[in-house]
Amino acid sequence: MTVFIIRRLAQSLIVLLAMSLIAFGGVYLIGNPIDILIDPNATEAERMAAEHALGLDQPLWAQYWHFLVNLLHFDLGKSFSASIPVSDLLLQRLPATIELTIVAFLVSFLGVPLGVIAGRRPDSLLGKTIMAGSILGISLPSFWIGLMSIIVFSVWLGWLPSTGRGDTITILGTQWALFTWDGIKHLILPGVTLALFNFALLIRLARAGMQEALMTDYVKFGRAKGLFERRVVWLHAFKNILIPIITVQGLELANLLTGALLTEVIFAYPGIGRLAIESIHFLDRPVIVGYMMFVVTTFVVINLLVDIVYGIVDPRVRYSGGGND
Amino acid sequence: MTAAVLNVEHLRTHYFTRAGVVKAVEDVSFEVRRGKVLGLVGESGSGKSVTGYSIMGLVDHPGRIVGGRILYNGTDLLALSEPEMRRLRGSRIAMIFQDPMMTLNPVLRIETQMVEAVLAHEPMSRQAARRRARDALGQVGIPSPDERLQAYPHQFSGGMRQRVVIAIAMLHNPDVIIADEATTALDVTIQGQILSEVQRLCQSHSTGLIWITHDLAVVAGIADEICVMYAGRVVERGTVDDVLDHPAHPYTFGLIGSVPSRNERGQPLRQIRGTTPSLANLPQGCAFRPRCFRANEICTNEPETMSISSRRETRCFHPLVAQPT
Ligand SMILES: Nc1ncnc2c1ncn2[C@@H]1O[C@H](COP(=O)(O)OP(=O)(O)OP(=O)(O)O)[C@@H](O)[C@H]1O
Ligand code: SF4
Ligand SMILES: [Mg+2]
């Protein structure tokens, strides 16, 4: 297992390097950030001074080298546009995204029991209704659902706010909205909108898994032992369908944590995804690169976690050492 | 003669598929006596497993028992409610499946799977249930049962796994055990061990055993009585010696001829010509007609079961042994 983790970390280091190179090169290709950052009427001297201050006057390889050296000290540099450290910027935005992720994740987990119910009786009216709902949830684009829910719940009914984060309280220097009533109200619409796709996905995964599991011999043997159907379904079959669900949920969690770009933009929600979009507008290279580093790291960490959880759920993985992937 | 614990009378189990009605079991009758072994023989698809599931009350959708009676100590199982049936399953009537790799749940410890089987029928403390499980493992010849309880199925060999399954089936000293191809997936030496193990246990607990197999040689070694099935019907029934020495039905005759035997070494094996008919599309009259060397005009009618002697029946217009007049 340790060998496996070390190998994984080495691999992800390479990915990190590659990503930072791509980000650097990509921004360079799109344009010179200085054109966006300074007043178009600035003099040549002012421009040179600004370039010098941001280090943009050095050749690209030197800038990259500088970035790498700083990275070794866990320093992602300063934002071009906001002039504060990128890591501060990310940390500022992260709580909002984490809260949104938690809400969306919890809401979407409702799909699991629904999928199990549908999988047990796929031909019943209830089973068919659940399945139809999940098809809608998967095929309707989230921006459409987001806009519709704003129209209905914010504009027509006026029940829920449609933008921003609402009141927050400060805990350990970061802002959290999940602990204020106003904050919770602000989380509902984006949270549910964001949850819908994963909710529908979980219905399908659980339904397909359940249908398959219920045909296996171990389920039949469980029944032949005289177990209650409850136990056969919710222990024997359920524990087996968790394996594919965990895989997909790991990716989904990473997706949500790295920012639900579309949802955050629609609801003007100040999370990390919107930060990424904003920084691309400004060609704010340190932020873009920092954001990408964050994305890659999140994926690596979550994949590692998924592998560990695998071992807990599936004993066959545990003993083989998990090294052969 | 010992009384029958289980009487299957004119059992009919059909699958209502989209492609039509599959008559998987069509008029099957036999008796199981305490401490005796009934061999249920027939080629793949002849309805042996479905007969077993019918007795257990475990016929899956879209299947349904459409006729007949299954008398357990005189009570018709088909008239029981699901809770009543559950109490019998695994405690009075147990079933063992073909593939020990699939019968045990891969993600649960042996302990969990055994303790739950104990507790499903007898309320007791977990410690007591665990002791029961451990003793049962010891009884089927599993070394250091205390440790093995902690293991997962994949840590056992195929033969050991089947022993675990047998131990589970024997937990409540059932009156009847249905063993569905219980040794087919194992290699030959293990097969012999398991076979004699099961035989010994059933005899010492005077459990009636239904041994389902397509292998006549196995049946010859273990069974007291034989039922030969073809296309969902019992075509011949009698004591092992009678049936194997003097087969009455042409299909049984063919089956016996296709088993290699010592005194015919060097000669080509006889094979039954033709292939198993599709159950959805059976020939008119006797289902064996297209493959039968004795078929004639009359055989386009459906043959009824008739007795040849006491406890000896066949379903054929032209049996190969003399009929009583
Ligand atoms: N779920 C099902 N849906 C439709 N038909 C089924 C189903 N299960 C069984 N059958 C039908 O019942 C017939 C008998 O099946 P069964 O499993 O009892 O055969 P078997 O004698 O046990 O054969 P084998 O030696 O291959 O195990 C099969 O031909 C199959 O067509
Ligand atoms: S009834 Fe006719 S076709 Fe069927 S087995 Fe007997 S002889 Fe053959
Ligand atoms: Mg079978």
The succession of helices and strands of chain A, N to C, reads HHHHHHHHEEHHHHHHH
Shape of chain B: globular
Beta fraction of the residues of chain B? 15-25%
**C-alpha Rg of chain A (nearest Å):** 24 Å
CATH architecture of the largest domain in chain B: 3-Layer(aba) Sandwich
Reading the helices and strands of chain B in chain order gives: EEEHEEHEHHHHHEHEHEEHHEE
Provide the CATH topology of the largest domain in chain B: Rossmann fold
Which consecutive residue ranges of chain B, at least 5 long each, have pLDDT under 50?
Answer: none
Mean pLDDT of chain A: 84
Shape of chain A: globular
**Name given to the CATH homologous superfamily of the largest domain in chain B:** P-loop containing nucleotide triphosphate hydrolases
Side by side, the strands of the main sheet of chain A go: 1-2
Radius of gyration of chain B: 20 Å
Percent helix of chain A, as a range, is over 70%
The helix/strand class of chain A is mainly alpha
The total count of strands of chain A amounts to 2
What is the CATH level 1 assignment of the largest domain in chain B? Answer: Alpha Beta
How much helix is in the residues of chain B?
25-40%
Q: Tell me what portion of residues of chain A adopts beta-strand conformation.
A: under 5%
Described by strand count, sense and barrel closure, the largest sheet of chain B is: 8 strands, mixed
Describe, in plain words, how this protein is organized in 3D.
The complex is a heterodimer of chains A (325) and B (325). Chain A is mainly α and 325 residues long. Helices cover 74% and strands 2% of the residues of chain A. Chain A is built from 15 helices and 2 strands. Chain B has 2 domains: 4-92 and 174-270, Rossmann fold; 103-171, no CATH class. In chain B, strand 7 (176-180), helix 8 (188-204) and strand 8 form a beta-alpha-beta unit. The relative contact order of chain B is 0.14. In chain B, helix 4 (110-119) crosses helix 5 and helix 5 packs across helix 7 (158-170). The A-B interface holds A 215-218, 220-228, 231, 235-236, 239-240, 313-316, 319 and B 53, 56, 58, 60, 86-91, 94-95, 97-99, 102-109, 116-117, 120-121, 152, 154-155, 165, 168. Adenosine-5'-triphosphate binds at residues 15, 17, 22, 24, 42, 44-50, 60, 63, 214, 279 of chain B.
